[in-house]
Amino acid sequence: MANTVTELLLTPNTGWGKTTATPKPSGGGIGEQGKVRVSVASHQAVSRGDGTASPTSSEEATYGGGQSQELQPQVVWGYCLLQGLSGRPMEDLHVAEVRTINEEEVAFFGIFDAHNGDAAAKYLQDHLFDNILNEGGVQSDPAGATRDAYLLTDRDMLASPLEKGGSTAVTAMVYGKGSRLIVANLGDSRAVLSKNGEPMQLSVDHDPGRPTERAIVEARGGHVTHLPGDQWRVDGLLALTRAFGDKELKEHMSSKLDVADVVVDLSCEFLVLGSNGLFSMYDNQEVVDRVRRCQDPVKAAHELVVEARRRYCEDDISCIVIKFQEL
Where do the PPM-type phosphatase domain residues begin and end (predicted)? Predict the structure, then answer.
């Protein structure tokens, strides 16, 4: 089966996807979360949020989960997404799936936090992981395949009819029969690994307030501004220095990703991927502590998102909790 990719998207069956009414903080309503299509094999749920949402719908969070079959340690995950309070359609999307490549399972996870519409996040959802696979080095050089695919996907997006908007991305790929983990990111969506209860941030926040990031923008001819009560912004517009898309700002922004290659050993308990809406409400240690208290990753992701809203996060909030479970 060399050079073939078989997606485990089998008969639609009973998945783990659900919606639930979410508590409302005083002073604002909560829009309906983007709907999720779930296709289920006998041993796993494969989910891709489709991003369709109505700001006038009932107050709901969307959540669910799945598991690998052959990876050791086994990968068991849960996700939760909740639309923001601005009245705009949901702009956070996710991917969580297991594929069989050359008779070995590879698990893919991603959070895509778009701005100026969800088109860029949808593009990533449809193309990014396929591009990683098409690079051909997932098993021999997965970090290199990921780097090349990120850059290719950004070039293709800029050449596409997508006229405006962009997206962050934080992705995780579990391969090597469960023994290795590749995490990559552009923007401020974050990945945090728990190692024996200690948080290890595997992503880099591409925030224009950081001196090194500001220097990148200025070296490309742009400028970074900070008005009282606001965030640092590139050219006074975007609170990110790196992202997919953003044609109108690309001359002053970078598409260079950060990549971490980690050995999954017995100290690795779980990985949390989240959008800025999640991590603006928690520090890394609190996220780890909360997930450690909850055995079920679906429940853990749901509780993190709901608590972030209770703390008056007005942004879209998305989270995937990926547990490494010895069989």
Answer: 76-324
